[in-house]
Design brief:
single chain; alpha+beta; eight-stranded mixed beta sheet; five-stranded mixed β-barrel; 24% strand
Length: 498
């Protein structure tokens, strides 16, 4: 297949730039590492943005700036360039009479090259804060031309594949990832202020546990042992609660061998925390408070706009049970039959929901909920009282053992958090693990394994505990108005290029 005209042009430009680099190599070190900048563009605008040129000329301010050249205008004896660094952009003013041979060399530099500039601050006739260059050096030759235009929607796949180019060209993308860092920092500070301890637990586990999901499998040569990339840190964190660390959290990666979509990436970031001497209602209060704090910290307001819709986080979050949600969105269903497996199978058939022979009423309820109700919860909503059948690690409700003391938080129609009062009855936990193994034996690839060591840990006694998992990626999506999880993951998983 022949190259497109655009590809031919790009290849020609790359050859021209390689020739320039070869000529530059002949003059000496082509990639010098002795330039040290002492100022960032954003800092200069903040410190001197209100200063007039008269003040700048009277109070000479020498600076050393470095960055990627994003714009270049050669106008005979004078030229202008725009340098970009991590904080923003600053204009450079270059004069032939001042720079001499360096000015002639600059004329051969390309947009995308990385430069080091020494000079003084001043304002141009148009009033733009600029650096009047006394010296300019090529530090890194860019061999590939930057895109002339970078329309995110038109080049979505390229943005994800070549995130480095996206970050060079797209200020909005850079801001998304700055905000992501702010969100994680806020959560850490919030938890540290409550005397939580941050820990790290194994990424590779001999038994995957802590969630109902399909794991990635690997092999440890030295131990001659099959191992799994973790699907959740839950069982290890709760071992720490048994050991006496009764306020622990971890912010790290989980891995689930499942599909890719705008909401799912097989490698994703979770905040998971455990708080002894608490229950699931305490965690609902906690995450509601944390969401408001995040909104104020990141957005400066309790009103957040996401995908054209406004969300008022100052309003108390709605709370509804799974069965209430099903009835609310399926008013023709018979409330008294919501735990009758035969009735629920008929409903699933009518809704086009595939079911398995081993699915009990709890599983069938959740299938109906996910099909008909889940996506409708736009404003923040806690859905609680999940069936025990689909909550193998949650504490059963004292008054109604069919359900557990578990909730999920939905915002904008997607789950952001999952929390529950922890099951700390070792014998009950062992029985539930056995039920999960039975499901696995019948073909359920997402069912849990039996973890005998975790059962043994519970036999030593775990105090009443509540646990919470928060999807960091989805949280960032919401607070940055990003439609896809790939917009908030620096390097999302994709099929290899052909």
């Amino acid at each position: 297949m022949s190259d497109t005209p655009e590809k031919v042009d790009e290849n020609k430009l790359i050859l021209e730039r390689r020739a320039k680099l070869a000529a530059w190599r002949a003059l000496g070190p082509a990639f010098p590492n002795d330039f040290r900048r002492d100022a960032l563009a954003g800092e200069l605008h903040s410190a001197f943005g209100e200063r007039g040129n008269e003040w700048l000329e009277a109070n000479r301010t020498p600076v050393r700036v470095g960055g990627r050249m994003m714009l270049k205008r050669v106008m005979g004896k004078v030229s202008f360039a725009t340098l970009s660094d991590r904080s923003g952009q600053i204009q450079i003013f270059l004069q032939r009479d001042t720079l001499g041979e360096a000015y002639e060399a600059f004329k051969g530099f390309d947009v995308g090259d990385i430069l080091g500039v020494e000079g003084d601050l001043f304002r141009t006739r148009t009033g733009e804060l600029s650096v009047r260059a006394r010296s300019v050096r090529l530090l890194v030759k860019s061999l590939r031309p930057l895109p002339d235009k970078w329309h995110g929607l038109a080049d979505t796949e390229l943005r994800y594949r070549q995130r480095y180019v996206d970050l060079i060209m797209n200020e909005k993308s850079r801001e998304v990832f700055r905000t992501r860092t702010k969100i994680v920092r806020y959560l850490r500070d919030f938890l540290d202020s409550l005397d939580f301890m941050e820990v790290e637990t194994p990424m590779m586990q001999p038994i995957p546990g802590g969630a109902v999901a399909r794991p990635f499998k690997t092999y440890h040569n030295a131990l001659d042992l099959d191992m799994y990339m973790r699907i959740a840190p839950e069982l290890y964190l709760k071992r720490l609660v048994v050991g006496g660390f009764d306020r622990v959290y971890e912010i790290n990666r989980n891995f689930r061998n499942e599909g890719l979509s705008t909401q799912h990436n097989p490698e994703f970031t979770m905040l998971e925390l455990y708080l002894a001497w608490a229950d699931y209602r305490d965690l609902m209060d906690w995450i509601e408070k944390a969401m408001r704090g995040l909104a104020q910290s990141v957005c400066g307001s309790l009103e957040v706009e996401y995908q054209g819709r406004k969300y008022d986080l100052s309003v108390p979050f709605k709370r509804v049970t799974v069965e209430q949600a099903i009835l609310e969105h399926n008013p023709k269903l018979v409330a008294s039959s919501l735990r009758d497996p035969h009735y629920l199978r008929t409903v699933c058939h009518e809704l086009g929901i595939p079911v398995h022979a081993h699915d009990g009423p709890g599983k069938l309820q959740i299938e109906i909920f996910e099909k008909t109700a889940e996506h409708t919860f736009l404003d923040p909503t806690f859905v609680h009282a999940y069936p025990a059948e689909v909550s193998p690690l949650s504490r059963a409700n004292d008054a109604d053992p069919f359900i557990t003391d578990r909730f999920e938080l939905f915002v904008a129609g997607r789950e952001l958090a999952n929390g529950f009062s922890e099951l700390n009855d070792a014998e009950d936990q062992a029985a539930r693990f056995k039920a999960q193994v039975a499901r696995k034996d019948k073909g359920d690839d997402e069912a849990m394994f039996y973890d005998g060591d975790y059962v043994r840990a519970l036999e030593y006694g775990m105090p009443p505990t509540a646990g919470l998992g928060v999807g960091i990626d989805r949280l960032v999506m919401f607070f940055t108005d990003s439609p896809s999880i790939r917009d908030v993951v620096l390097f999302p998983h994709m099929k290899p290029e052909a």
